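Proteins fold reproducibly. Consider a sample protein:
=====
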Amino acid sequence: MIRIGLAGIGFMGMIHYLASQKLKGAKVTAISSRDSKKLAGDWRGIQGNFGPAGTKMNLNSQKKYENFETMIADPDIDLIDICSPTNMHPEMAITALKAGKHVLVEKSIALDTKSADAMVKAAKNAGKLLMVAHVLPFFPEFAFAFDAIQSEKYGRLQAAHFTRVISKPDWSKDIDDSSKTGGPAVDLHIHDTHFIGLIAGVPGRLFSNGITSNEGTVEFLTTQYLYGDNGPAISSSSGWLSMKGQTFVHGFDIYLEKATLRYHSFGQPLTLLTHDGKSKQPKLSGGGDPIFSFTREIQTAVDGVIKNKEPELLSGALARDALVLCHKEIQSVHTGKEVIIR
Protein backbone atom coordinates (compact mmCIF):
# COMPACT_ATOMS: atom_id res chain seq x y z
CA MET A 1 0.00 0.00 0.00
CA ILE A 2 1.42 3.35 -1.10
CA ARG A 3 0.73 5.97 1.55
CA ILE A 4 0.12 9.47 0.22
CA GLY A 5 0.62 12.75 2.04
CA LEU A 6 -1.50 15.47 0.42
CA ALA A 7 -0.08 18.99 0.74
CA GLY A 8 -2.39 21.93 0.13
CA ILE A 9 -6.18 21.90 0.31
CA GLY A 10 -7.41 24.34 -2.29
CA PHE A 11 -9.45 23.45 -5.36
CA MET A 12 -6.86 21.11 -6.88
CA GLY A 13 -6.06 19.60 -3.50
CA MET A 14 -9.74 18.73 -3.12
CA ILE A 15 -9.86 17.25 -6.63
CA HIS A 16 -6.78 15.12 -5.89
CA TYR A 17 -8.32 13.96 -2.61
CA LEU A 18 -11.57 12.95 -4.32
CA ALA A 19 -9.70 11.26 -7.17
CA SER A 20 -7.59 9.30 -4.69
CA GLN A 21 -10.66 7.61 -3.24
CA LYS A 22 -10.70 5.25 -6.23
CA LEU A 23 -7.00 4.36 -6.30
CA LYS A 24 -5.81 0.77 -6.26
CA GLY A 25 -2.95 -0.02 -3.90
CA ALA A 26 -2.77 3.48 -2.42
CA LYS A 27 -4.63 5.93 -0.23
CA VAL A 28 -4.26 9.39 1.27
CA THR A 29 -3.11 8.79 4.84
CA ALA A 30 -2.04 12.33 5.76
CA ILE A 31 -2.97 15.91 4.92
CA SER A 32 -1.15 19.17 5.54
CA SER A 33 -2.69 22.62 5.45
CA ARG A 34 -2.10 25.93 7.19
CA ASP A 35 -5.90 26.31 7.45
CA SER A 36 -7.22 24.71 10.65
CA LYS A 37 -10.79 24.66 9.30
CA LYS A 38 -9.72 22.59 6.30
CA LEU A 39 -7.78 20.20 8.53
CA ALA A 40 -10.99 19.75 10.50
CA GLY A 41 -12.80 18.78 7.29
CA ASP A 42 -14.64 22.01 6.52
CA TRP A 43 -14.03 22.42 2.78
CA ARG A 44 -17.21 24.37 2.04
CA GLY A 45 -15.29 27.45 0.96
CA ILE A 46 -13.56 25.63 -1.93
CA GLN A 47 -14.83 26.17 -5.45
CA GLY A 48 -13.49 25.71 -8.97
CA ASN A 49 -14.46 25.54 -12.63
CA PHE A 50 -15.45 21.85 -12.71
CA GLY A 51 -16.38 19.02 -10.39
CA PRO A 52 -18.38 19.22 -7.16
CA ALA A 53 -18.43 22.14 -4.77
CA GLY A 54 -16.52 21.88 -1.52
CA THR A 55 -18.35 20.31 1.38
CA LYS A 56 -17.66 18.85 4.81
CA MET A 57 -15.23 15.93 4.67
CA ASN A 58 -14.72 13.08 7.09
CA LEU A 59 -10.97 13.09 7.71
CA ASN A 60 -10.97 10.80 10.72
CA SER A 61 -8.66 8.26 9.04
CA GLN A 62 -6.02 10.80 7.96
CA LYS A 63 -3.20 12.31 9.97
CA LYS A 64 -3.33 16.10 10.00
CA TYR A 65 -0.33 18.43 9.86
CA GLU A 66 -0.33 22.21 10.01
CA ASN A 67 3.34 22.15 9.07
CA PHE A 68 4.54 20.67 5.77
CA GLU A 69 8.01 19.89 7.09
CA THR A 70 6.49 17.85 9.91
CA MET A 71 4.44 15.81 7.46
CA ILE A 72 7.38 14.94 5.21
CA ALA A 73 9.29 13.76 8.27
CA ASP A 74 6.63 11.10 8.84
CA PRO A 75 8.24 7.72 8.01
CA ASP A 76 4.83 6.23 7.21
CA ILE A 77 4.40 8.34 4.05
CA ASP A 78 5.77 7.17 0.69
CA LEU A 79 4.52 9.80 -1.78
CA ILE A 80 3.96 13.52 -1.28
CA ASP A 81 1.25 15.02 -3.50
CA ILE A 82 1.83 18.79 -3.72
CA CYS A 83 -1.19 20.90 -4.66
CA SER A 84 0.04 24.29 -3.48
CA PRO A 85 0.28 27.43 -5.67
CA THR A 86 2.97 27.11 -8.35
CA ASN A 87 5.35 29.60 -6.75
CA MET A 88 5.65 27.21 -3.78
CA HIS A 89 6.37 24.07 -5.83
CA PRO A 90 10.21 24.20 -6.01
CA GLU A 91 10.90 24.63 -2.30
CA MET A 92 8.28 22.10 -1.23
CA ALA A 93 9.25 19.48 -3.83
CA ILE A 94 12.99 19.76 -3.19
CA THR A 95 12.47 19.58 0.58
CA ALA A 96 10.31 16.47 0.21
CA LEU A 97 12.79 14.80 -2.15
CA LYS A 98 15.67 15.47 0.24
CA ALA A 99 13.53 13.92 3.00
CA GLY A 100 13.44 10.70 0.98
CA LYS A 101 9.92 10.98 -0.41
CA HIS A 102 8.70 10.45 -3.94
CA VAL A 103 6.90 13.57 -5.20
CA LEU A 104 3.90 14.25 -7.40
CA VAL A 105 3.55 17.99 -7.92
CA GLU A 106 0.67 19.73 -9.66
CA LYS A 107 1.41 21.53 -12.89
CA SER A 108 3.07 23.85 -13.62
CA ILE A 109 6.32 22.34 -12.39
CA ALA A 110 7.58 25.84 -11.43
CA LEU A 111 7.39 29.45 -12.53
CA ASP A 112 10.86 29.57 -14.08
CA THR A 113 13.20 27.15 -15.81
CA LYS A 114 16.00 27.52 -13.26
CA SER A 115 13.71 26.30 -10.48
CA ALA A 116 12.44 23.44 -12.64
CA ASP A 117 16.01 22.35 -13.35
CA ALA A 118 16.78 22.41 -9.62
CA MET A 119 13.77 20.17 -8.95
CA VAL A 120 14.81 17.63 -11.60
CA LYS A 121 18.37 17.64 -10.23
CA ALA A 122 17.16 17.17 -6.64
CA ALA A 123 15.17 14.09 -7.67
CA LYS A 124 18.19 12.59 -9.39
CA ASN A 125 20.41 13.27 -6.37
CA ALA A 126 17.87 11.79 -3.97
CA GLY A 127 17.19 8.73 -6.09
CA LYS A 128 13.47 9.49 -5.89
CA LEU A 129 10.76 10.17 -8.46
CA LEU A 130 9.69 13.69 -9.36
CA MET A 131 6.41 13.43 -11.24
CA VAL A 132 4.44 16.42 -12.54
CA ALA A 133 0.67 16.15 -12.63
CA HIS A 134 -0.17 17.14 -16.19
CA VAL A 135 -3.63 15.62 -16.45
CA LEU A 136 -4.40 16.33 -20.12
CA PRO A 137 -2.99 13.04 -21.49
CA PHE A 138 -5.37 11.23 -19.12
CA PHE A 139 -8.51 12.89 -20.48
CA PRO A 140 -10.18 10.20 -22.62
CA GLU A 141 -10.21 12.29 -25.80
CA PHE A 142 -6.55 13.29 -25.49
CA ALA A 143 -5.55 9.77 -24.46
CA PHE A 144 -7.18 8.45 -27.64
CA ALA A 145 -5.32 11.03 -29.73
CA PHE A 146 -2.00 10.26 -28.03
CA ASP A 147 -2.40 6.52 -28.65
CA ALA A 148 -3.36 7.11 -32.30
CA ILE A 149 -0.32 9.33 -32.88
CA GLN A 150 2.15 7.16 -30.98
CA SER A 151 1.03 3.90 -32.62
CA GLU A 152 0.80 5.50 -36.10
CA LYS A 153 -2.33 3.41 -36.59
CA TYR A 154 -3.57 6.10 -38.97
CA GLY A 155 -0.17 7.13 -40.25
CA ARG A 156 2.18 9.95 -39.31
CA LEU A 157 1.13 13.15 -37.56
CA GLN A 158 1.00 15.89 -40.19
CA ALA A 159 -0.65 18.87 -38.52
CA ALA A 160 -2.69 19.91 -35.49
CA HIS A 161 -4.31 22.90 -33.82
CA PHE A 162 -5.12 23.03 -30.11
CA THR A 163 -7.57 25.37 -28.41
CA ARG A 164 -7.87 26.24 -24.70
CA VAL A 165 -9.88 29.37 -23.89
CA ILE A 166 -11.63 30.29 -20.65
CA SER A 167 -13.35 33.29 -19.13
CA LYS A 168 -11.21 35.13 -16.62
CA PRO A 169 -11.46 33.19 -13.33
CA ASP A 170 -13.27 34.83 -10.41
CA TRP A 171 -13.34 31.78 -8.14
CA SER A 172 -9.76 31.89 -6.86
CA LYS A 173 -7.60 34.78 -5.66
CA ASP A 174 -4.45 32.78 -6.46
CA ILE A 175 -5.23 31.94 -10.08
CA ASP A 176 -5.50 35.63 -10.96
CA ASP A 177 -2.11 36.38 -9.37
CA SER A 178 0.56 35.92 -12.06
CA SER A 179 3.31 36.10 -9.41
CA LYS A 180 1.95 32.81 -8.05
CA THR A 181 0.78 31.11 -11.27
CA GLY A 182 2.65 32.74 -14.16
CA GLY A 183 -0.63 33.98 -15.63
CA PRO A 184 -2.73 32.20 -18.27
CA ALA A 185 0.19 31.91 -20.72
CA VAL A 186 1.78 29.54 -18.20
CA ASP A 187 -0.86 28.20 -15.82
CA LEU A 188 -3.48 27.52 -18.51
CA HIS A 189 -1.50 27.21 -21.73
CA ILE A 190 1.07 24.77 -20.31
CA HIS A 191 -1.49 21.99 -20.68
CA ASP A 192 -1.13 22.26 -24.44
CA THR A 193 2.63 22.88 -24.61
CA HIS A 194 3.05 19.71 -22.53
CA PHE A 195 0.84 17.67 -24.86
CA ILE A 196 2.53 19.10 -27.95
CA GLY A 197 5.93 18.15 -26.52
CA LEU A 198 4.59 14.68 -25.82
CA ILE A 199 3.35 14.02 -29.36
CA ALA A 200 5.91 15.97 -31.42
CA GLY A 201 8.86 16.90 -29.23
CA VAL A 202 10.27 20.38 -28.71
CA PRO A 203 10.25 22.52 -31.89
CA GLY A 204 13.34 24.34 -33.08
CA ARG A 205 11.59 27.70 -33.28
CA LEU A 206 8.22 29.32 -32.63
CA PHE A 207 6.32 32.51 -33.28
CA SER A 208 3.51 33.88 -31.10
CA ASN A 209 1.28 36.91 -31.14
CA GLY A 210 -1.17 37.80 -28.43
CA ILE A 211 -3.02 40.14 -26.12
CA THR A 212 -1.40 41.58 -22.99
CA SER A 213 -2.86 43.34 -19.95
CA ASN A 214 -1.86 46.84 -18.87
CA GLU A 215 0.56 45.16 -16.44
CA GLY A 216 2.20 43.20 -19.27
CA THR A 217 0.68 39.79 -18.50
CA VAL A 218 0.01 37.78 -21.65
CA GLU A 219 -3.70 36.99 -21.42
CA PHE A 220 -4.16 35.33 -24.83
CA LEU A 221 -1.81 34.02 -27.49
CA THR A 222 -1.71 32.07 -30.71
CA THR A 223 1.49 30.20 -31.54
CA GLN A 224 3.01 28.48 -34.55
CA TYR A 225 5.50 25.77 -33.52
CA LEU A 226 8.11 25.53 -36.27
CA TYR A 227 9.46 22.01 -36.78
CA GLY A 228 10.93 22.57 -40.24
CA ASP A 229 9.91 21.76 -43.81
CA ASN A 230 8.79 18.21 -43.01
CA GLY A 231 6.58 19.33 -40.16
CA PRO A 232 4.46 18.57 -38.36
CA ALA A 233 2.62 21.89 -38.69
CA ILE A 234 1.30 22.56 -35.19
CA SER A 235 -0.38 25.63 -33.69
CA SER A 236 -2.37 26.52 -30.60
CA SER A 237 -4.53 29.29 -29.15
CA SER A 238 -4.94 29.79 -25.43
CA GLY A 239 -6.00 32.38 -22.88
CA TRP A 240 -8.84 33.89 -20.90
CA LEU A 241 -10.75 36.13 -23.31
CA SER A 242 -14.04 34.19 -23.42
CA MET A 243 -17.26 35.66 -22.07
CA LYS A 244 -19.09 34.03 -19.13
CA GLY A 245 -21.52 32.29 -21.48
CA GLN A 246 -18.69 29.87 -22.29
CA THR A 247 -16.43 29.68 -19.27
CA PHE A 248 -14.21 26.90 -20.65
CA VAL A 249 -13.52 25.20 -23.94
CA HIS A 250 -10.64 23.02 -25.06
CA GLY A 251 -10.08 20.75 -27.97
CA PHE A 252 -8.12 19.94 -31.08
CA ASP A 253 -8.07 19.26 -34.80
CA ILE A 254 -5.42 16.63 -35.51
CA TYR A 255 -4.51 15.62 -39.05
CA LEU A 256 -2.90 12.22 -39.58
CA GLU A 257 -1.99 10.66 -42.93
CA LYS A 258 -5.08 8.44 -42.97
CA ALA A 259 -7.43 10.09 -40.49
CA THR A 260 -8.56 13.33 -38.90
CA LEU A 261 -9.41 13.64 -35.21
CA ARG A 262 -11.71 16.44 -34.06
CA TYR A 263 -12.77 17.29 -30.53
CA HIS A 264 -14.07 20.46 -28.89
CA SER A 265 -15.55 20.30 -25.42
CA PHE A 266 -18.26 22.83 -26.35
CA GLY A 267 -20.40 20.88 -28.81
CA GLN A 268 -18.02 18.56 -30.72
CA PRO A 269 -17.49 15.08 -29.26
CA LEU A 270 -14.38 13.22 -30.33
CA THR A 271 -14.87 12.26 -33.96
CA LEU A 272 -12.66 10.06 -36.12
CA LEU A 273 -12.75 10.80 -39.86
CA THR A 274 -11.00 8.17 -41.98
CA HIS A 275 -9.63 8.19 -45.52
CA ASP A 276 -12.48 5.97 -46.78
CA GLY A 277 -15.03 8.71 -46.06
CA LYS A 278 -16.37 7.21 -42.84
CA SER A 279 -16.98 9.06 -39.59
CA LYS A 280 -17.46 7.65 -36.10
CA GLN A 281 -17.32 8.67 -32.47
CA PRO A 282 -14.96 6.31 -30.62
CA LYS A 283 -16.19 4.79 -27.37
CA LEU A 284 -14.34 6.39 -24.48
CA SER A 285 -13.89 5.33 -20.86
CA GLY A 286 -14.73 7.57 -17.93
CA GLY A 287 -18.45 8.06 -18.41
CA GLY A 288 -18.18 11.85 -18.27
CA ASP A 289 -16.92 11.84 -14.67
CA PRO A 290 -14.72 14.96 -14.31
CA ILE A 291 -12.68 13.26 -11.57
CA PHE A 292 -11.92 10.13 -13.64
CA SER A 293 -8.90 11.59 -15.43
CA PHE A 294 -7.31 12.68 -12.17
CA THR A 295 -7.73 9.19 -10.73
CA ARG A 296 -5.91 7.78 -13.78
CA GLU A 297 -3.19 10.40 -13.39
CA ILE A 298 -2.56 9.72 -9.69
CA GLN A 299 -2.82 5.96 -10.26
CA THR A 300 -0.03 6.29 -12.82
CA ALA A 301 2.09 8.08 -10.21
CA VAL A 302 1.35 5.34 -7.65
CA ASP A 303 2.30 2.64 -10.17
CA GLY A 304 5.52 4.57 -10.83
CA VAL A 305 6.37 4.48 -7.12
CA ILE A 306 5.60 0.75 -6.94
CA LYS A 307 7.88 0.06 -9.91
CA ASN A 308 10.37 2.80 -8.92
CA LYS A 309 10.23 4.03 -12.52
CA GLU A 310 9.27 7.48 -13.76
CA PRO A 311 6.08 7.33 -15.88
CA GLU A 312 6.54 8.90 -19.31
CA LEU A 313 3.36 10.97 -19.04
CA LEU A 314 4.44 12.48 -15.70
CA SER A 315 8.08 13.12 -16.61
CA GLY A 316 9.74 16.02 -14.81
CA ALA A 317 11.92 16.73 -17.86
CA LEU A 318 8.89 16.87 -20.16
CA ALA A 319 7.15 19.25 -17.73
CA ARG A 320 10.27 21.40 -17.69
CA ASP A 321 10.31 21.57 -21.49
CA ALA A 322 6.63 22.57 -21.49
CA LEU A 323 7.49 25.48 -19.19
CA VAL A 324 10.32 26.54 -21.51
CA LEU A 325 7.89 26.69 -24.44
CA CYS A 326 5.49 28.90 -22.48
CA HIS A 327 8.22 31.38 -21.64
CA LYS A 328 9.52 31.42 -25.22
CA GLU A 329 5.99 32.16 -26.40
CA ILE A 330 5.65 35.01 -23.92
CA GLN A 331 8.99 36.36 -25.19
CA SER A 332 7.75 36.16 -28.78
CA VAL A 333 4.53 38.03 -27.92
CA HIS A 334 6.46 40.82 -26.22
CA THR A 335 9.11 41.17 -28.94
CA GLY A 336 6.98 40.42 -31.98
CA LYS A 337 9.76 38.17 -33.24
CA GLU A 338 10.36 34.51 -33.94
CA VAL A 339 12.19 32.80 -31.08
CA ILE A 340 14.77 30.01 -31.25
CA ILE A 341 14.16 27.27 -28.67
CA ARG A 342 17.47 25.45 -28.80
